[in-house]
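ENTRY TYPE: paired fold submission
RECORD: A
CONTENT: sequence, then structure tokens
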Amino acid sequence: MATHVEDVVGVLELEGLDDVVLCGHSYGGMPVTGAADQVAKRIRLIIYVDALVPRDGESAFDLLPEQFSDMAQASAREHGEGWRVPIPISLLPPEGWIAEDERVRYVSRLRDQPLATFAESVRLTGAIDGLPRAFVRCTGGDVGGDLDGDPIEPVAARAQAEGWLYRELVATHDPQLTAPAATAAILHELVAAAPRRGD
């Protein structure tokens, strides 16, 4: 997790980026949260797309159903030399969702994920609490159907309770794949609706 956070921070700092709209999808909400907290002065808005959003000291395993933790650890032992998790077949886009050549291209770019990225906690200073945040809830699929519970629903409820910009998108959990135009449109809408620094 710390490496993923460092990678995001490195891009922002080494490229000298400011007024950044930082977007995280699914697990990507974890490192995006950690990175934004470290370089809050560079961030204009954080957009979470059907994503996990940790509080200080939480790991992805803390936010995901226990069944996912058991599945990931078993998969790492069986297929990933004990330290990496191949993507579960159930999470691959099924045939028929999108054009087959696009689906094959997408699947060919997927990589195993280190088990430690799920287990390591995100450490936050509290700087992120002063940043505008938005949440996009994807309502066109059942992300928790095989996990004994939807891990995104509590995060979406938190976003609404804390007054973040909030939108729903009728798309699957991977809207950038199955509804790219609608995803782009909602991201543009949220950026336009977000306050600028100093407003």
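RECORD: B
CONTENT: sequence, then structure tokens
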Amino acid sequence: MLSVVSPCYNEGPGLRQLVQALQETLPEVTPDFEVILVDDGSSDDTLAQLRAVAREDPRFRYLALSRNFGKEAAMLAGMSEAAGDAVAIIDADLQHPPELLKRMLPLLDHGFDQVVAKRTRAGDAAARTFASRIYYRLVNHLMDVRLQDGVGDFRVLSRKAVDALLSLREYNRFSKGLFSWIGFDSATVNYENVLREVGESKWGLRRLLNYGIDGVISFNSKPLRSAIHFGLLMSALAFIYAAWIVARALVTGVSSPGYVTIICAIVGFGGLQMIMLGIVGEYLGRIYLETKGRPHYLFKETSESPRAAIVSSAPVIPEAHAARDGSLGASPRGSGIE
């Protein structure tokens, strides 16, 4: 059985196109499938359309989160409720072509636990392509796992890989890093970049920048170590500069340093200190959120329990699959609250 998980946030204008594409493609991939559409607190008519789709086609289920928890939480919610032996993650904007599943799913039968779709960057702005390449080169030097340029969340996972992801309990989730961290044998399927036809992308420059910072900080402590190294370097340069000033004073007499030099030094070192404090603050903030132990998301309603609120947490592993695998402990599903 194949479960297809698709997070949806304000995808009302193109949602019917997604449903139609999946209805046409998935029967050609496998006769036994389900589609889980996760409404991540949309403010348009996405949820109303999901209700209608679930009534029309029982193979389509929906999960409605109580607010916008973010794509990471929406993917986690979908995977937690997926019953399939294989789980595909696909975006709702059709930039992940569903027909590619015809090539991806059979590779699971060849011993792979992750089949990853890698897109070209045809059609992207030159500046964005350049920035992306620089970013991936940088993070692969900093992170403890390796990321591939052009590889996103579009992939097919075996039940073993899904259960491994669900066993990772951290609140601050960076899916690209998590997919790489769990390991397992992976295969890559290349495809041409598909431009968005309906609606606008939710990923602006600011959100992409914050996402990039999350990636760097989530999987290592190297920024903290770099701050120590940089501080030692600055201290060494300051010592060398002080020695040069003393030597110059002994040779040519005492002279006052330039005003501009002093101001630049104060402003520059002040900025560096703020950056270092910001790095430390990021790690402390993440520890603070982890210690709260709050659930990653809350359900407002589902196709199985309309109008019911359900609390759900991170380590949600379907008991049947966990017991069959035997390698991971099972944890109960979320409990209903009337």
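NOTES ON RECORD B: The chain is about 50% helix and 15% strand. The two ends are 31 Å apart (CA to CA).
STATUS: closed
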